[in-house]
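To the wet lab folks,

You asked to see what we're planning to order before we commit. Fair enough. Below is the target structure as tokens, and below that is the sequence we designed to fit it. If anything looks off to you, flag it before the synthesis order goes out.
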């Protein structure tokens, strides 16, 4: 990690964060989505909806909470462009967007697979729009799984070499990543990033990074 310097080069770079969603098929997700869900959040979603960022924090707890906190603290988007987006089965969604239980069920029913057109078409649409709004000088930082192509492939197709990921995500599990991100928030320090173009997939859930060093502006 590197200390964030308000007047440093990293602080001046425009950055947008794209977060992977929480997996609603887990125990907490199924409790929320089930007809008998009794939590205050479930009741709220039945009545008027709740911010999808809050919903995913409930489902995923530590990992998504870390991703959302880190992204909100360190994003530096162009003027007028939201700096934090969540990748979902319905395209990109802002964390503040309200969703009902029925909407969450529909979003969660779409398989997150780079070869699934139901996932790719709305995502590609929103990524191209985001590129148009953000311009060509903005870094796009993925806070999500880099072990498969499901997020990396669509992002690279639109943003190319501007897609980055935290170096320290390599070899870490979800809980460890969540703790790391929250620690960065408490210490006001940013992670170092590597370009996703350097990832080499060696199997269904394994990868290697061809990058032996950080980008010059991120050392």
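Sequence we intend to order:
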């Amino acid at each position: 990690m590197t200390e964030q310097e308000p007047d440093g080069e990293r602080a001046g770079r425009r950055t947008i964060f794209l977060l992977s969603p929480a997996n609603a098929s887990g125990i907490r997700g199924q409790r929320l989505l089930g007809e008998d869900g009794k939590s205050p959040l479930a009741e709220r979603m039945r009545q008027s909806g709740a911010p999808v960022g809050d919903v995913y924090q409930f489902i995923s707890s530590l990992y998504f909470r870390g991703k959302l906190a880190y992204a909100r603290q360190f994003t530096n988007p162009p003027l007028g462009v939201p700096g934090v987006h969540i990748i979902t089965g319905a395209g990109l969604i802002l964390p503040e967007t309200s969703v009902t239980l029925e909407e969450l069920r529909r979003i969660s029913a779409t398989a997150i697979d780079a070869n699934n057109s139901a996932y790719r078409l709305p995502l590609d649409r929103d990524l191209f729009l985001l590129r148009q709004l953000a311009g060509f000088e903005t870094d796009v930082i993925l806070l999500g799984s880099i072990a498969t192509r499901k997020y990396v492939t669509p992002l690279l197709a639109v943003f190319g070499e501007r897609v980055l990921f935290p170096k320290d995500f390599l070899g870490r599990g979800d809980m460890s990543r969540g703790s790391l991100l929250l620690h960065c928030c408490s210490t006001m320090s940013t992670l170092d990033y590597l370009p996703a173009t350097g990832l080499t997939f060696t199997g269904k859930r394994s990868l290697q990074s061809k990058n032996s060093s950080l980008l010059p502006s991120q050392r």
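Structural context that might help your review: The chain has one domain: 2-218. Residues 2-218 form one domain.

Thanks,
Computational group
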